[in-house]
């Protein structure tokens, strides 16, 4: 009992100290967080090292060496946050105040809470003399929110040996959902690819007082935007969605009936799978004339587009062009990030599902594709790491958490911090060590 209480206090204290360091990215200044963690881990006898492309943006990697050449487990996290407008908040975003069982502040959910839980996991195991079969690694990385090449991407390129692992746990999922009267915890095993494109529409400029003599590219773009707004691509069932539907609904419908079947079970189930059935397009930015009285010759529409894992831009382009029809535009892909997946039947999945079954009787772990993307794709791409996004949230409603992330009044329940640390300790002591998981 005493041990549990102190773990809880240790988590709160470390999270409060992390929140009080402003690591809004840009500029980041993650070295402040890395140094705090180095001091905390050093006090607990955990070896760690800072790696930085520039001095003020350090990544921390800590490690308990494995003794039997077993599989390595990497606890992945990021220490930077998005910005916060203090005027919108009820409390100072960098106060780290503990109020009514919740720690308040920017990053509490995304993701200094999980940083603290990961650090306390490795520190508490080190104190107990834990000897893993394979290395237990904790990485607190810079620059996840912007991705300008100072964080995990850079570590994978410049110091790959520090973060190479067979298994990894990161942010991305862990919500507790009640669907059709049963309880499920979602685990992110794959991610959609962020693959925005730009439509460039050409016309002919002219004086705005005489529209007939010009060809207004903005007006032409409007009909393309409307077609994108009406986009309803043919659904298909990825293996993760099949597994989700099997667990939740007990059967797998045809792709065309999947959304309705999920809705019949629970509207929330439909909400979860809807973005996972096909690529999505959201036009978000438009640029045309810079002068009110000049009809624009060129109009650019930027479209946020998310592909299914494994889907190629060439395939997506055929689908998008079919929707846009014959018209006068150029389509240019701007970038491509993520879109990776990890297999489902692994010792790491076993650790997630056994923890869920144990922490809440009757509850089941189910896989999902994360509609956004996280740093997990760097290690999946580089090392073939089995990387899942899972940090269980039980005390806080998923709708509440979704509303607070990247928004005002972000906070985490201490009960959830403790649950998360318990999960990470469970994973660390079972993955890569079959004897422990059978014990
Ligand atoms: Zn995050």
How would you sum up this structure, described in words?
- The protein has 439 residues and is α+β, with helices and mostly antiparallel strands.
- The protein has two domains: 2-179 and 339-438, Aminopeptidase, CATH 3.40.630.10; 193-337, Alpha-Beta Plaits (2-Layer Sandwich).
- Helix content is 37%, strand content 23%.
- It contains 15 helices and 20 strands.
- The chain has helices at residues 2-19, 31-43, 108-127, 152-158, 160-163, 217-229, 239-249, 258-265, 267-273, 313-324, 347-359, 376-383, 398-404, 414-430, 434-438, and strands at 47-52, 58-64, 73-78, 98-99, 102-104, 136-141, 167-170, 176-179, 182-191, 193-194, 197-202, 206-207, 280-287, 294-295, 298-307, 329-333, 337-338, 364-370, 386-389, 411-413.
- It has a six-stranded mixed sheet with strand order 1-2-6-3-7-19, sandwiched between helices. Strands 10, 11, 13, 15, 16 and 17 form a six-stranded antiparallel sheet that branches.
- Strand 4 and strand 5 form a beta hairpin.
- It is globular and about 80 Å long.
- The mean pLDDT is 95.
- The chain binds zinc ion.
Mean pLDDT: 95
Gap between N and C termini? 22 Å
Helix content: 25-40%
User: What radius of gyration results from the CA coordinates?
Assistant: 24 Å
Strand content: 15-25%
CATH topology of the largest domain: Aminopeptidase
Task: Tell me the number of structural domains.
Answer: 2
Q: What do we call the CATH homologous superfamily of the largest domain?
A: Zn peptidases
Protein structure class:
alpha+beta
Main sheet? 6 strands, mixed
Strand order of the largest sheet: 1-2-6-3-7-19
């Amino acid at each position: 009992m005493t041990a549990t209480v102190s773990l809880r206090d240790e988590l709160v204290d470390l999270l409060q100290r992390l929140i009080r360091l402003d690591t809004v990215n840009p500029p980041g200044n993650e070295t402040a967080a890395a140094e705090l963690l180095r001091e905390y881990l050093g006090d607990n006898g955990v070896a760690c090292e800072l790696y930085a492309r520039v001095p003020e943006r350090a990544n921390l990697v800590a490690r308990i060496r494995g003794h039997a050449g077993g599989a390595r487990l990497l606890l992945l996290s990021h220490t930077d946050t998005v910005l916060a407008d203090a005027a919108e908040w009820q409390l100072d975003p960098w106060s780290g105040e503990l109020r009514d069982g919740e720690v308040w502040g920017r990053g509490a959910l995304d993701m200094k809470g999980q940083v603290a839980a990961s650090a306390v996991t490795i520190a508490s195991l080190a104190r107990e003399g834990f000897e893993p079969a394979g290395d237990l690694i904790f990485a607190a990385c810079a620059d996840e929110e912007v991705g300008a090449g100072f964080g995990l991407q850079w570590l994978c390129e410049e110091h790959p040996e520090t973060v190479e692992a067979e298994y990894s746990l990161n942010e991305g999922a862990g919500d507790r959902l009640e669907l059709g009267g049963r309880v499920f915890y979602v685990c992110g095993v794959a991610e959609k690819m962020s693959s925005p494109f730009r439509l460039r529409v050409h016309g002919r400029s002219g004086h705005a007082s005489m529209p007939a003599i010009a060809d207004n590219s903005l007006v032409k773009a409007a009909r393309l935007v409307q077609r994108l707004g009406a986009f309803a691509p043919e659904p298909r069932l990825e293996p993760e969605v099949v597994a989700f539907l099997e667990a939740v609904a007990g059967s797998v419908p045809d792709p065309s009936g999947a959304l309705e079947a999920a809705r019949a079970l629970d509207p929330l189930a439909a909400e979860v799978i809807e973005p996972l059935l096909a690529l999505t397009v959201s036009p978000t930015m438009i640029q045309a004339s810079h002068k009110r009285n000049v009809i624009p010759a060129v109009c650019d529409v930027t479209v946020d587009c998310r592909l299914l894992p494994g889907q190629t831009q060439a395939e997506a382009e055929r689908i998008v062009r079919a929707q846009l029809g014959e018209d006068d535009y150029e389509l240019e892909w701007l970038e491509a990030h993520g879109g990776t997946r990890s297999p489902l039947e692994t010792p790491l999945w076993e650790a997630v599902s056994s923890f869920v079954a144990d922490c809440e009787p009757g509850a089941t772990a189910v896989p999902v594709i994360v509609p956004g993307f996280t740093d997990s794709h760097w290690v999946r791409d580089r090392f073939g790491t089995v990387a899942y996004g899972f940090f269980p949230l039980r005390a806080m409603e998923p709708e509440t958490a979704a509303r607070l992330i990247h928004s005002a009044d972000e906070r985490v329940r201490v009960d959830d911090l403790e649950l998360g640390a318990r999960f990470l300790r469970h994973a660390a002591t079972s993955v890569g060590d079959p004897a422990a998981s059978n014990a």
